From TrEMBL, chain A:
This is Amino acid/amide ABC transporter membrane protein 2, HAAT family. PANTHER family: HIGH-AFFINITY BRANCHED-CHAIN AMINO ACID TRANSPORT PROTEIN BRAE, HIGH-AFFINITY BRANCHED-CHAIN AMINO ACID TRANSPORT SYSTEM PERMEASE. It comes from the Bacteria. It is found in: Cell membrane.
Automatic annotation (TrEMBL), chain B:
Residues 30-365 form the Leucine-binding protein domain. This is Amino acid/amide ABC transporter substrate-binding protein, HAAT family. It holds the Pfam family Peripla_BP_6. Residues 1-28 form the signal peptide. The lineage of its organism: Bacteria, Bacillati, Bacillota, Clostridia, Eubacteriales. GO terms for biological process: amino acid transport. InterPro entries: BCAA_transport (IPR051010), Leu-bd (IPR028081), Leu_Ile_Val-bd (IPR000709), Peripla_BP_I (IPR028082). Belongs to the leucine-binding protein family. CDD domains: PBP1_ABC_HAAT-like. The keyword Signal applies. It comes from Anoxynatronum buryatiense.
From TrEMBL, chain C:
This is Amino acid/amide ABC transporter membrane protein 1, HAAT family. GO terms for cellular component: plasma membrane. Belongs to the binding-protein-dependent transport system permease family. LivHM subfamily. Keywords: Amino-acid transport, Cell inner membrane, Cell membrane, Membrane, Transmembrane, Transmembrane helix, Transport. The keyword Glycoprotein does not apply. The keyword Mitochondrion does not apply. One of its GO terms (molecular function) is L-leucine transmembrane transporter activity. GO terms for biological process: D-alanine transmembrane transport; L-alanine transport; L-isoleucine import across plasma membrane. It holds the Pfam family BPD_transp_2. CDD domains: TM_PBP1_LivH_like. Its main location: membrane.
Length: 338, 373, 301
C-alpha cells in the first residue's frame, strides 16, 4: 500500500485527482466566467476577438473530429464553413427568413456536402485525401465566384440581416452575438464530448491509430469515417452561418485556403484528439495576429516562426498526448498513471 | 497538472489580450486619424502606398500647426486585406474616442466587413479604393473617394470609340467586384456609342498567362481592348498581346495608373491611354509639390490610388478644421459638404457620398505618362 | 465559314502549345514535391515559396550584372541552400523526435509564411519586371507561330527532367535515394547516411524550384512574392495526379494540368481556370485512388 501511495505521489496524481474531483465546480466556474465576460471586459474590440475565438473553436472541434480523432487530414475545411455561410445568407436575404431557421438549414446543407464529399473520397487515404479536400474547397470557391444567379458572383452578398431573437436584434454592442455564439459553442462542445466518449468515438480513435487493426476488430471504418465527416461539416456549417450574420458581408474571398490552414493549425497546435486543445489553439492562433501588431510588417514572419517553433518543441500539440488517461476506470479501482 | 497548466495558460492569455489590446487611451489633447489598409499580404504595396500618402498629409498639417491648434496623431492598422481582421480593427478604432476619421481598407469586400462598425459608431470612413456599388449604402458616415465606375467607364469607352475611332471592342476584366461591374457597364456603354463588343474575357486575380484570352480576343477581331484590371494584369497582357497583334490598342483604368506599369510592359506600354483624375506630370502646384514630397520621402512616384488616399486624409482634416470642434457628427457633415481642391482634382461628394471629379486623359509616350491631346 | 474553321483549328494548336509550355513548368515544380515526398512521405508546402525565392534570387543576381547564366547558377545554389536550411533547421529535429507527419506538414506551412513575407519585406510586394531570357523571334510549327521562348522553356525543362531522372537512376547518391525511398531503416543499416540523402534531396528540390521560378519569370517577364502560391497548389495536385513520389508521373500530371487549364480558360472562360486542375484531380482519384501511376500503400501525410 505504501509503495502504491509513493508511486501515486511521484506521479503527481493527487493534484490531478483533486482536479478531477472538483471538475464540476471548475467547469461551472468557467461557465460563469464566460457568461460574465462581457461585463468584466467592457470592450467591443475584445469581445469581437473573443467571438472569433469561439467561432474558430467550433471550427477546430468540427475538424478535430475528422482529423484529430479519426486521423483523416482535411485541407479544405473552409469549404464547409463557406457553404454554411452562403446557404444561410442566401436564404435569409432572398426570403427574409429568420436566422434561427436558416442556421440549422445551412448546417444541414453543409453536412450533406460533407456526405457527398465523404462517400466517394473516403477510400482515399493520407495525401490523396488531403489534396482532394483541398481541391474540393477550391472548386467550391470557384462555384461561389461563378454561379452568379445564386451567389451574386464576385459582388458577394451584402447587408445580411442580423439575427433577431424575440424582437431583439442581436449585435456585438448588446452582447447578443456573444451569447449566441456561446450557445453554439456549448452545443458543439457537448455533442463532441458525448461523441468522443461513446462507442462511436472509440471506433474513430481506433481508425486513427491503426486502420487495419480496426477493420480486424470489426469496425466499419468507411461508415464511421463518413459519419465523422458529416458531423464535422455540420458544425462547420453552423459556424459559417453565424459568421455570415455577424460580419454581414461575404464574398468568395472570405473563405480561402488560408482559412482551411488556420483551422488545421488550431487542431494540431491544440492537440489532436482533444477537445480542450481546440479552445487553446483557437485562443492562440486568433489572438496572435492581434497581439503581434507591434512588429508591423514582420507580423506574419513571426506567425510562421511561431508555428515552426511550436511544432519543433511540442509536435503533439499543446494538450496532445494526454488522452491516454481519459478512460474512466471503475470506481474504487486503483491504478497508477503509467 | 497539465489541466491546471492549461487552465492557467488560457486565463493568462485572455488577460494578456485584455491588457494588450484593450488600452484605448482617452488622453485628451490629441486629434487622431486612422489608416487601415493591407501592410502585409499580397496587396501590401497598395496599403503601404496609402499609409505613406496619409503620413505625408498629416506631417504637412502638423508642420503648419496641426488642426484646431492640436497636433495630429496618425494611427496605423494593417488588415492584410482580410475582412475578418478589418472588422476587428474597425472595432478597435471605434473604441478610441479620439479618432476622428478613418482612411481606408483596400478591397471592397474588406471595406464592407468594416463599414457596419464605422456606421454604428458614427465615425467618418473614406475609402480611396472601394468600388462595390453597395459600399456607401451602409450609411451616411461611409464615403468613397474612388472614381465612380460608370463615369470612369464612360471616359474609357470614349477613348476607345472616339479618340481611337475603333468600332470592334474587346474587354478583358478581372473577376472581382470591381472588374465584373466595370465590364458590365462598359458593355452597355460601348453599345450605346454605336460600337460592338466582339468578346469579353474574364481572368482571375493572379493570372500571369493571358494567351487563351488573347487568342479569343484576337480571333474575334478586336481592334481595341478595354482592360479593367490592375497594372500587374495590364502590363503583361499588353506585352503578350503585342506579340500576336502589334497593331492592337489598349485602354486602361485609373487603377492601373502606376509607374510599375511602364516598368512591366516596357515598349508595349507605349500608347496606352487612361482616363484618370491624378496625373503625376501635371503642372498644378498641388500635384508638383505632392509628387516631389512623396519622391523625397519614399523614393517612388505615387500611383493614382495613392493620390486618392492622400486626398482622403486631406478631406478629413479639412472637415475637422471646418467643423471647428472635435465632434464626429459635425465632422461627418463637413465631409459631406466639402469642396476640396486636392491632387486628384476638385472634389465634392454627391448625395450617395461618391466623389465627383472630372477626368483627364493620360497616355504613355516614350516611357512617360503625358497628358493626351 | 472556311476561315472560321481555320481560326478554330489554329486556336486549338496555339493553346495546345501554350498548355504544353505551362504544363512542363508545372512538371518542374511538381518534381520538387515528388522528390521530397518519395523520400520523406512529406508534403512540402514550402515548395511554392521556395520557387518564388528562386525567382527573386535570379532577379537579384541578374540586376548585379554578373551575366545571366552565372546569375541563374548562383540563384540555383542559393535556393538549394535554402532547401537544405529548411530541412536542417526545422524538419530534421522533428524526424529525430519521431513526431507525427502532420507536425512536419504544419512546419512547412509555417516556413512558407516566413519565406513569402520576408520576400515581401525585402523586395516589396509589387510585381517587378524581369528581363526576357531568350528572344529569337517566333518559329512556325504546324501553321502556328510559336515563340522561341516557349520552345526554349520546353526543351530546357525536358533536359532538366531527364537529368534529374539520370541522377536518380545512374548515380550512387541516386541509388541511395531510391534505397531510402523504399526502406529508410534498412538503408541506414546498410550504411547509407540517410540524413545526407535527405539533405541532398532538399537541395535538388530547391535547385529545380529555382530553375522553374527563373524560367517562368523570364517567360512572363515578371516576379512577385505571391507568385508561388497557386502554381504551388496546382503543381502539388499535378504530382498527386501522376502518383506522388513517381517522377514521370509528375511530368505527365503537370502536362495534363497545364493543357487542361489552358483549354478551360479558352473555352469556358478565364474564371474557371484555377478550378479545372482540381476537378480533374478529383475525378482521376475517384477512379484511381493512388493517382495515374501511383503505387499502393502510401498512407501518411
Amino acid at each position: 500500500m505504501d509503495d502504491l501511495r509513493r508511486l501515486i505521489k511521484e506521479n503527481r496524481i493527487p493534484l490531478y485527482r483533486k482536479m478531477d474531483q472538483y471538475r464540476h465546480y471548475i467547469i461551472a466556474g468557467l461557465l460563469l466566467l464566460l457568461l460574465a465576460l462581457p461585463y468584466l471586459l467592457n470592450s467591443q474590440y475584445i469581445m469581437r476577438i473573443i467571438i472569433m475565438i469561439c467561432v474558430y473553436s467550433i471550427l477546430g472541434m468540427s475538424l478535430g473530429l475528422i482529423t484529430g480523432y479519426t486521423g483523416q487530414t482535411s485541407l479544405g475545411h473552409a469549404a464547409f464553413y463557406a457553404i454554411g455561410a452562403y446557404t444561410s445568407a442566401i436564404i435569409s436575404v432572398t426570403y427574409g427568413v429568420s436566422f434561427f431557421i436558416t442556421a440549422p438549414i445551412a448546417a444541414c446543407v453543409a453536412a450533406l456536402m460533407g456526405l457527398l464529399l465523404g462517400l466517394p473520397t473516403l477510400r482515399l487515404s493520407g495525401t490523396y485525401l488531403a489534396i482532394t479536400t483541398l481541391g474540393f474547397a477550391e472548386v467550391v470557391r470557384m462555384i461561389f465566384l461563378n454561379w452568379e444567379r445564386v451567389t451574386n458572383g464576385p459582388l458577394g452578398i451584402s447587408r445580411i440581416p442580423r439575427p433577431v431573437f424575440f424582437g431583439i436584434e442581436l449585435t456585438i454592442a448588446n452582447n447578443g452575438m456573444y451569447y449566441l455564439v456561446l450557445a453554439f459553442l456549448l452545443l458543439t462542445t457537448l455533442v463532441m464530448h458525448f461523441i468522443v466518449r461513446s462507442k462511436f468515438g472509440r471506433a474513430l480513435t481506433a481508425i486513427r491509430d491503426d486502420e487495419v487493426a480496426a477493420v480486424m476488430m470489426g469496425v466499419r471504418t468507411t461508415y464511421y469515417k463518413i459519419i465523422a465527416f458529416v458531423v464535422g461539416a455540420f458544425f462547420a456549417g453552423l459556424a459559417g452561418a453565424f459568421y455570415a450574420h455577424m460580419i454581414r458581408f461575404i464574398d468568395p474571398n472570405t473563405f480561402t485556403f488560408d482559412t482551411s490552414i488556420l483551422i488545421l493549425s488550431i487542431v494540431i497546435l491544440g492537440g489532436m484528439g482533444t477537445i480542450k486543445g481546440m479552445f487553446l489553439g483557437a485562443i492562440l492562433l486568433i489572438s496572435f495576429p492581434e497581439l503581434l501588431r507591434f512588429v508591423q510588417e514582420y507580423r506574419f514572419v513571426l506567425y510562421g516562426l511561431i508555428l515552426v517553433l511550436m511544432m519543433r518543441f511540442r509536435p503533439q500539440g499543446l494538450l496532445g498526448g494526454q488522452q491516454k488517461t481519459d478512460y474512466a476506470f471503475p470506481k474504487g479501482m486503483k491504478v497508477d498513471n503509467q | 497538472m497539465k489541466k491546471v497548466i492549461s487552465l492557467v495558460l488560457i486565463l493568462a492569455l485572455v488577460l494578456v489580450s485584455m491588457t494588450g489590446c484593450g488600452s484605448s487611451s482617452t488622453d485628451a489633447g490629441s486629434v487622431k486619424i486612422a489608416i487601415a489598409a493591407p501592410m502585409t499580404g499580397d496587396f501590401a504595396e497598395y496599403g503601404t502606398g496609402f499609409r505613406n500618402a496619409v503620413e505625408l498629409m498629416v506631417n504637412e498639417w502638423n508642420e503648419n500647426g496641426g488642426v484646431l491648434g492640436q497636433q495630429i496623431e496618425l494611427v496605423i492598422y494593417d488588415d492584410k486585406n482580410d475582412g475578418e481582421e478589418a472588422a476587428t480593427i474597425a472595432e478597435r478604432i471605434a473604441s478610441d474616442d479620439n479618432i476622428m476619421g478613418v482612411v481606408g481598407h483596400f478591397a471592397s469586400g474588406v471595406c464592407m466587413a468594416a463599414t457596419p462598425t464605422y456606421q454604428e459608431t458614427g465615425i467618418v470612413n473614406i475609402s480611396p479604393s472601394a468600388s462595390h456599388p453597395d459600399f456607401t449604402k451602409e450609411g451616411d458616415y461611409i464615403f468613397r473617394n474612388n472614381t465612380v465606375i460608370n463615369v470612369e467607364a464612360e471616359a474609357a469607352v470614349a477613348i476607345a470609340t472616339e479618340l481611337y475611332g475603333k468600332s470592334k471592342v474587346g474587354i478583358l476584366s478581372v473577376r472581382n467586384d470591381w472588374g465584373t461591374s466595370t465590364a458590365e457597364i462598359t458593355k452597355e456603354l460601348v453599345a450605346a456609342a454605336g460600337a460592338e463588343v466582339v468578346d469579353h474575357q474574364e481572368i482571375l486575380d493572379g493570372t500571369v498567362d493571358f494567351s487563351p484570352n488573347i487568342s479569343r480576343l484576337h480571333n474575334a477581331g478586336a481592334e481595341v481592348i478595354i482592360v479593367a484590371a490592375m497594372y500587374n494584369v495590364l502590363g503583361p497582357f499588353a506585352s503578350q498581346y503585342q506579340d500576336v497583334n502589334p497593331d492592337i490598342q489598349f485602354v486602361g483604368f485609373s487603377n492601373a495608373y502606376s509607374r510599375q506599369l511602364i516598368e512591366l510592359a516596357g515598349d508595349s506600354a507605349e500608347g496606352i491611354h487612361f482616363p484618370t483624375q491624378f496625373f503625376d506630370g501635371s503642372t498644378d502646384q498641388n500635384v508638383v509639390a505632392f509628387v516631389e514630397a512623396y519622391k523625397e520621402a519614399y523614393g517612388s512616384t505615387p500611383s493614382s490610388l495613392t493620390a486618392q488616399a492622400y486626398d482622403s486624409a486631406g478631406i478629413i482634416l479639412t472637415a475637422i478644421q471646418n467643423a471647428g470642434e472635435l465632434d464626429r457628427a459635425a465632422i461627418r457633415d463637413q465631409v459631406a459638404g466639402v469642396e476640396y481642391n486636392g491632387v486628384t482634382g476638385y472634389t465634392t461628394f454627391n448625395e450617395s457620398r461618391d466623389s465627383v471629379r472630372p477626368f483627364t486623359v493620360v497616355k504613355i509616350h516614350q516611357g512617360e505618362f503625358v497628358e493626351a491631346r | 465559314m472556311v476561315t472560321k474553321k481555320r481560326w478554330g483549328e489554329r486556336m486549338v494548336m496555339e493553346q495546345l502549345i501554350n498548355g504544353l509550355t505551362i504544363g512542363i513548368i508545372y512538371a518542374l515544380i511538381a518534381v520538387g514535391y515528388s522528390l521530397v515526398f518519395g523520400i520523406l512521405r512529406l508534403v512540402n508546402f514550402s515548395h511554392g515559396s521556395v520557387y518564388a525565392f528562386g525567382a527573386h534570387m535570379s532577379l537579384l543576381f541578374i540586376s548585379m550584372e554578373f551575366g545571366i547564366v552565372p546569375a541563374i547558377i548562383a540563384s540555383m545554389i542559393f535556393t538549394g541552400m535554402l532547401g537544405i536550411a529548411i530541412d536542417k533547421l526545422s524538419l530534421e529535429p522533428l524526424r529525430m523526435k519521431g513526431s507525427k507527419p502532420i507536425a512536419a506538414l504544419i512546419t512547412t506551412i509555417g516556413i512558407s509564411y516566413i519565406i513569402q513575407n520576408m520576400l515581401m519585406i525585402v523586395f516589396g510586394s509589387e510585381t517587378k519586371s524581369f528581363p526576357r531570357l531568350f528572344n529569337y523571334g517566333t518559329v512556325r510549327i504546324f501553321g502556328v507561330n510559336v515563340g522561341s521562348t516557349q520552345i526554349a522553356i520546353f526543351f530546357i525543362s525536358l533536359v532538366l527532367l531527364v537529368a534529374l531522372t539520370a541522377i536518380i537512376h545512374y548515380t550512387k547518391v541516386g541509388l541511395a535515394m531510391r534505397g531510402v525511398e523504399q526502406n529508410a531503416k534498412a538503408s541506414y543499416l546498410m550504411g547509407i547516411n540517410v540524413n545526407r540523402v535527405v539533405t541532398f534531396t532538399f537541395f535538388l528540390g530547391g535547385v529545380s524550384a529555382a530553375i522553374a521560378g527563373t524560367l517562368v519569370s523570364g517567360y512572363y517577364q515578371m516576379v512577385s512574392p505571391g507568385m508561388g502560391f497557386m502554381p504551388g497548389l496546382k503543381a502539388f495536385s499535378a504530382a498527386v495526379l501522376g502518383g506522388i513520389g513517381i517522377l514521370y508521373g509528375s511530368v505527365i500530371g503537370g502536362l495534363v494540368v497545364g493543357i487542361s487549364e489552358t483549354f478551360a480558360a479558352t473555352y469556358l472562360g478565364g474564371s474557371y481556370r484555377d478550378a479545372v486542375a482540381f476537378i480533374i484531380l478529383i475525378l482521376v482519384l475517384l477512379v484511381r485512388p493512388n493517382g495515374l501511376f501511383g503505387k499502393k500503400g502510401i498512407k501518411k501525410v
